[in-house]
Backbone:
């Protein structure tokens, strides 16, 4: 019988005395020690891992979105397209992840739901920061973070900055003249549909060749919102499947609240202008 294959013979590093290993580099001890189910229910680990991995992907989405916003304020906006495509792919990743959670039935969830207390994704600071950065801003959503000054400060700081869409509008204004007043807005509020902006975007869509960068930017933003909307839809469908019409642990009406959120438009002009083309 031949000996089992030993990758060391092909040069695989097998000894890590004093050298950085995979576990060290990725901080896996901390990551894999961060799951602390509060019940003995089998499915609680799934629930925890699903939320934690979602938060990790959101951390990456924020990293890319901050870079995309900076790029929209730089000379050449084209590198932002790649960053925005990546964020869309991240949301697609999160969308596929619902399939795993959907294997948890109401019978499974009720075995540990009480352990959550009043905690809920509603209190996800990263989710709120993504919304604020994109342009869906609502000061009231900062309140659940008042007990964590670091998170509150971060969210408030985001409301002082132009949103990703504000930066897109500033670029639009450089190519298509817009009245100064049209760009001035209260940064703490969500974007509202605006006829002036839609007329300017319509120019871009009627002549893509002349305004190619803006045309591509607009489509990347619509793409991103498209994936974001699918995430919201997958979430509310999973929630209804698991808890029906019960109230949420976070205190909202549950499915009724999440259905209302389906109506949120991140970049309303980019959707409304399509009717006019
Ligand atoms: C069976 C699994 C889940 C159930 C039953 C559930 C339930 C709910 C409910 C009822 C709400 C409304 C707020 C409340 O009153 O609690 C909510 C909000 C939220 N959940 Fe989930 N959820 C689940 C999984 C997830 C996962 C995996 C994530 C990923 C991070 C997540 C993220 C969020 C976020 C970000 C919100 C706030 C949405 C907004 O304000 O627009 N949820 N969830």
Residues:
């Amino acid at each position: 019988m031949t000996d089992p294959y030993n990758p060391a013979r092909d040069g695989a590093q097998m000894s890590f005395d004093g050298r950085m290993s995979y576990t060290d580099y990725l901080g896996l001890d901390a990551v894999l020690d961060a799951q602390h189910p509060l019940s003995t229910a089998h499915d609680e680990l799934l629930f925890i891992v699903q939320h934690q991995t979602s938060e990790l992907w959101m951390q990456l989405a924020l990293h890319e979105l901050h870079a995309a916003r900076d790029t929209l304020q730089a000379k050449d906006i084209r590198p932002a397209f790649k960053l925005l495509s990546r964020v869309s792919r991240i949301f697609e990743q999160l969308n596929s992840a619902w399939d795993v959670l959907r294997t948890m039935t109401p019978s499974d969830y009720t075995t540990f739901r009480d352990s959550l207390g009043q905690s809920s994704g509603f209190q996800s600071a990263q989710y709120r920061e993504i919304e604020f950065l994109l342009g869906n801003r609502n000061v009231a959503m900062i309140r659940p973070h008042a007990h964590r000054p670091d998170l509150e400060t971060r969210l408030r700081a985001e409301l002082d900055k132009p949103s990703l869409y504000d930066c897109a509008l500033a670029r639009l204004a450089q190519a298509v003249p817009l009245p100064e007043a049209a760009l001035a807005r209260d940064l703490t509020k969500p974007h509202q549909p605006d006829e002036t902006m839609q007329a300017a975007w319509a120019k871009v869509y009627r002549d893509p060749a002349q305004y190619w960068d803006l045309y591509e930017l607009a489509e990347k933003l619509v793409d991103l919102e498209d994936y974001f909307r699918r995430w919201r839809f997958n979430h509310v469908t999973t929630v209804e499947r698991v808890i029906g019409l019960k109230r949420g642990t976070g205190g909202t009406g549950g499915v009724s609240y999440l259905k209302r959120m389906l109506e949120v438009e991140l970049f309303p002009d980019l959707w409304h202008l399509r009717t006019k083309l």
